[in-house]
Amino acid sequence: MGQDIISTRTAQRRLNQLNNGNFELDDSSRSGRPVEVDFDRLKQLIEDDPRLTTRCLAEKLGCSHTTVETYLNKLGKTWKYGVWIPHKLSAHQLQYRIDIYLDLLTSHRNYE
């Protein structure tokens, strides 16, 4: 199905609403946790304590932990060794890896 096409179930639900006299085209509000997260507050919480788990962050932000994971991925963060860190390497980290690789390559050639 294309992006602009609604599912069969959605069409059935809309038709049922029209038959019952509900001509509102906007989606009605739903119960449950909000899907939107305060992006700036999430960033601040991670900067203050990068060891916070997604469940703890979700509790503080009032949303689900999967929503927090989604937003952390958008921030480019990944969970390594119990800390939220940037997913991409910094220039310093990249240079450090190259230096180690070259040292290992040199030492391997000396053993041959």
From TrEMBL:
GO molecular function: DNA topoisomerase binding; double-stranded DNA binding; histone H3K36 methyltransferase activity; histone H3K4 methyltransferase activity; single-stranded DNA binding; single-stranded DNA endodeoxyribonuclease activity
Record GO biological process: DNA double-strand break processing; DNA integration; double-strand break repair via nonhomologous end joining; mitotic DNA integrity checkpoint signaling; replication fork processing
InterPro entries: Transposase-MT_Hybrid, WH-like_DNA-bd_sf
Cellular compartments per GO CC: condensed chromosome; nucleus; site of double-strand break
Highest taxon in the source lineage: Eukaryota
PANTHER family, A to Z: HISTONE-LYSINE N-METHYLTRANSFERASE SETMAR (PTHR46060:SF2), MARINER MOS1 TRANSPOSASE-LIKE PROTEIN (PTHR46060)
Name used for this protein in its record: Transposase
